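Box S1 | Example of a co-folding query
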Amino acid sequence: MTTTPVATTARPFSASELEALRADFPILMQEVNGHPLVYLDSGATSQKPLAVLDAERDYYLHQNAAVHRGAHTLAAEATEMFEEARASVARFVGADDDEIVWTSNATEAINLIAYAISNATAGRGGEAARRFALAPGDEIVVTEMEHHANLLPWQELAARTGAVLRFIPLAGDGTLRLDLLPDLIGERTRIVAFTHVSNVLGIINPVAELVEAAHRAGALVVLDACQSAPHLALDLHASGVDFAVFSGHKMLAPTGIGVLYGRRELLNALPPFLTGGSMITTVTMEGAEYLPAPQRFEAGTQRVSQAIALGAAVDYLSAAGVDRIAAHEERLGQRLVEGLSAIDSVTVLGPGPGRERVGLASFDVAGVHSHDIGQFLDDRGIAIRVGHHCAQPLHRRFGVTSSTRASTYLYTTDSEVDQLLEGVSDAIAFFGAHA
Ligand code: PLP
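Box S1 (continued) | Returned holo structure for pyridoxal-5'-phosphate
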């Protein structure tokens, strides 16, 4: 699996290429608080290019019909576009079309897996689903750096089934304690769920090692690819993960569309989570037979325009070159952590410069609350994220309750990173003088 942008030989974007690319994102041209917008919050949600906005609008202008149902032309066209989008996303992440399930977002995708496993534990899904059933004392392993979306669904699944949640702690430098894997992943381990790229630290976890340890123990691997799918080239088949999730809105698509990837044979053995229309072969008053994946997990009227827009988004990313995006962001990420590390009273959470990362870093400023930094920067049109970034245990591990996070994307410039660094220095001087 390609996880190391450092190793990529791809060329970052030239200044003129970047300028041309930015012209596709009209929002980047606007002013905020009297300053040109400097958008450094793409880790929360990305901006959208015209190609994506147009794809969604065109669909409403010309097709707009429920998919997989109607006998009319618009319904047939909408269905074709909906399925073409699925094929684009499948190609983009190295999966087959029927292994891509549409969800509202990554959070829903993880909950879908957890509730489907609950249903299997309750005896639903027959013989095929028995392999997913959890017994009291079975173990679910996560890491200490998970987003709450990849922690709470497992806490709840453990509470429903009597399984035990264990976690891989962090070493002093903020990387995972891989030396503890032999103790943490063993014969009781049934699920290993971890983030590919930390939404707080920006570092890339070693997927291959974790997959190997999980599979040696016979456990299923769930990869949270929310912060990797937008920024790195993924090959899910090659990675060996069993399930993976990501959200469209972080990768140029609108909100309301996410993806659950599952290996075909697993998806077809897993009982459904939501049930209702459009996911069945036959229904009687007593019961129902369910369609194979992906339809068995897509109950109800689907998010057609959002899926089509996500298809347009991955086509846009592919045309820009995912390896080139990774190279661009690796450079920006190093510039960001080098600059932050050089500012007195700033502590970068996790590994500093030199460690492979995406263009994202979080930091603490001694004596200044992250909300004050955020407000100060916002007055200059610089948008960043403050708070715990849905990762309270990780912040607790670093002895802080909140941090300031800057995150880049393919449209971010060196100058924007430099404006952030200058803004942070000025904020420290301002609040220091007013302390
Ligand atoms: N996992 C990670 C690593 C994230 O960064 C996020 C979003 O910030 C999520 C999961 C949840 O994504 P969503 O809120 O789109 O479901």
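Residues 1-7 have pLDDT under 50 and may be disordered. DSSP finds 15 helices and 17 strands in the chain.
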